[in-house]
Amino acid sequence: MKVLICAYRDWAKEISHKISNNKNIIIVGNISNQKGLVKKLKNGLDVDIILFIGWSWIISDEITDNYLCIGIHPSDLPHYRGGSPIQNQIIDGVDKSKVTLFTLSSKLDSGDIWCKEDINLSGNNMNAIFKNIIDSSVTLLENFFKKYPNIEPITQKTGVGSYFRRRTPIQSKLVKQDLQNMNTLELYNFIRCLTTPYPNAYFEDDNGNRVFFEEISFSKK
């Protein structure tokens, strides 16, 4: 099976590296940006699957109509479709979720679902959470490549679940009302899911000075 991998984030590249020696696939290229993908496919490409990991660019219908494009989404689809799924789940108090392998289509995160794998969203910072995502995604892909093509996807029920827009840096701001409304666990979850590489949680005074939270720990009584 010939696979073209598209990944540019560090954790996504780590997944790509870990599956590179899988005996069930032949990797025909690794793409790290949209321009490189368009160039690679310009004159056609003999490939069975294009695998997108942590990809943020819009994929044209011309590509999805002519190739089997699959992607990894770090949520239990159809729940938490759209942007910033890791942050939105953690802020909502979700610590046990799934990574989902699904077909990419013109409608965001709404394609057929191939398979899922359990994922743990606990961890004091995003580095720990990314490690969990990497491990679960590698297991997910190994199971898929072992079964494909003798596996059928399931139509996603987009009438249920949830959709979120990508979070913006201003949403990392904490104000007095947040502290009044959040308990300690909710505050911990908010800060830990916004550690590097994401825009850190912060306070701001009346003069525009800011205090950023780069690390946090939580201790139960």
Which helices and strands occur, and which strands form pairs?
Elements: E1 2-7, H1 10-19, E2 26-31, H2 34-41, E3 49-53, H3 61-64, E4 68-73, E5 81-82, H4 85-91, E6 96-103, E7 113-120, H5 126-147, E8 163-164, H6 176-181, H7 184-192, E9 202-204, E10 210-212
Parallel strand pairs: 1-2, 1-3, 3-4, 5-8
Antiparallel strand pairs: 4-6, 6-7, 9-10
Helix pairs in contact: 1-5
Can you describe what's shown?
This protein has helices spanning 10-19, 34-41, 61-64, 85-91, 126-147, 176-181, 184-192, and strands at 2-7, 26-31, 49-53, 68-73, 81-82, 96-103, 113-120, 163-164, 202-204, 210-212. The chain is an alpha/beta fold and 221 residues long. The mean pLDDT is 94. It is built from 7 helices and 10 strands. The strands form 3 sheets. It has a 6-stranded mixed sheet with strand order 2-1-3-4-6-7, with helices on both faces. The protein is elongated. It has 2 domains: 2-164, Rossmann fold (3-Layer(aba) Sandwich); 169-212, no CATH class.
Nutshell version of this structure?
This protein has 221 residues and is an alpha/beta fold. The chain has helices at 10-19, 34-41, 61-64, 85-91, 126-147, 176-181, 184-192, and strands spanning 2-7, 26-31, 49-53, 68-73, 81-82, 96-103, 113-120, 163-164, 202-204, 210-212.
